[in-house]
Amino acid sequence: MTTAVPTSRTNGRKSVAAALLLGALGAALVLLATGRTWSEGTAAAERGISMAQQASGQEVTALPGALAVVGLAALVAVFAVRGAARRLVAGLLVMSGAGVVGASVTGLSDTTALEEKAAKVAGLTRASIADVGHTAWPWVAVAGGVLLLLAGLLALRFGPQWPAMSGRYERGDAPAPRRAKAPADPDRPEELWKALDRGEDPTGGPAR
Fold this sequence. Notes:
By secondary structure, the protein is mainly alpha-helical. The protein contains seven helices and three strands. Strand 1 and strand 2 form a beta hairpin. Helix 1 packs antiparallel against helix 6. The longest helix has about 30 residues. It starts with a helix and ends in an 11-residue tail after the last helix.
């Protein structure tokens, strides 16, 4: 019975560190991946000229990047609330991670952004693109979403043991030490009058 509280505190500290690490790393991976090339291909331009086209993750789908920002904000907000509000925010973090995974998987084979670029090159409302290829960056975004999801699950499981942003881990019932009173400023008017009342010379000369 006496080891339950220390064990709970240890688990709480470890889960806090793990959630912060997973959440921050996951959001960073997603934001990095969405700025990289996800798909590439060749568009036919005028006079039979072919031009290589590339589409970044942000151009393919803006959802993973937006959800990564939401997840990161939720990770910070977890420590600003308690009780049911903390569970709600943790749930938002879980959904953000799951949304990143879903949107990134959908973007693995999406060619809409490449076709739109090909249409601009050809001057048409719609154009086809050949030699389509996809990079590994969508999978990096998927991995980042999984990390955000895990951070959210940790917050749901161990969140009640975590401290709030304005609180701290329990450190016993000892009262906080009292701050020493700052010495009075002898140059203040009220201190000068008090010195005169005591028969002292506030200028530092000998008393009369």
